[in-house]
Automatic annotation (TrEMBL):
It comes from Nitratireductor aquibiodomus. Gene3D superfamilies: Vaccinia Virus protein VP39. Pfam families: TylF (PF05711). It comes from the Bacteria. This is Asparagine synthase (Glutamine-hydrolysing).
Length: 237
């Protein structure tokens, strides 16, 4: 009983530590992030803003846009770039484990459920329009200048130039191939002391293998922790 009470109090403190916008997107059912991951994401965001780490903020895998709204709302004058297919996610590949393939079968069979027993985002018509409307509800205009949303496969929509730099990137795209592409691409334009958060590191074998592969090959990246998700820091040279 006391352990259950302790967990309840910890969750209450975590929730109270969140900024209002984070509590609101969770209340409105706009994010799949559990409380612990939302609190961790917000903590990393607050750090890069407080330390004035230069660069833009990006998210790969937006779903209903909840965590993206938090990042965009509290970006501190930086650009926010959001990337998603805005529809049903592509299937996993042979580099993914049975966990990913089993999960995708549920999605493909039309049996996935949404937040608070609502409709699964991958089945929604005009998901892009819904996300844009959610941004507007929170006072954020998708103007494709300061707030940019790009629809399509990541490899088709993300081709950073030499001038593109990032301070915080949230990767929430489940499978081996997209995680490998995003982390490899982002690591080249992540500023020192910038951070990449990989949401599914503990959830899917393919995601974890992709992250571990990049970390083994790039000495400029340091895995700082793996709970409640992977947090990777760009080291100063």
């Amino acid at each position: 009983m006391f352990q259950k009470l302790g967990r309840s109090l910890t969750k209450r403190r975590l929730k109270l530590s969140l900024p209002p916008v984070a509590r609101e997107v969770m209340r409105d059912g706009l994010t799949y992030l559990p409380l612990e991951r939302m609190a961790s994401l917000n903590s990393e965001l607050e750090r890069v803003v407080a330390e004035d780490v230069s660069g833009d903020i990006a998210e790969f895998g937006m779903a209903l846009g909840g965590s993206a709204i938090v990042l965009a709302k509290r970006r501190g004058g930086r650009r926010f770039l959001g990337f998603d297919v805005f529809g049903q996610i592509p299937p996993p590949t042979d580099d993914d484990g049975t966990d990913a393939h089993n999960r995708f079968k549920v999605i493909a069979d039309g049996k996935s459920t949404g937040i608070q027993d609502g409709e699964y985002y991958g089945y929604m018509d005009d998901l892009y329009g819904r996300v844009v409307s959610s941004f507007e509800k929170y006072g954020l205009r998708v103007d494709n200048q300061s707030i940019i949303l790009r629809k399509g496969l990541f490899q088709d929509t993300f081709a950073p130039s030499e001038s593109d730099r990032f301070c915080l990137v949230h990767i929430d795209c489940d499978w081996y191939d997209p995680v490998l592409f995003c982390l490899t691409s982002v690591s080249r334009c992540l500023n020192p002391d910038g951070v990449v958060i990989v949401d599914d590191y503990n959830d899917y074998e393919g995601c974890r293998n992709a992250v571990d592969k990049v970390l083994a090959e790039d000495a400029s990246l340091r895995l700082e922790r793996t709970l409640p998700h992977a947090v990777i820091r760009k080291l100063r040279s």
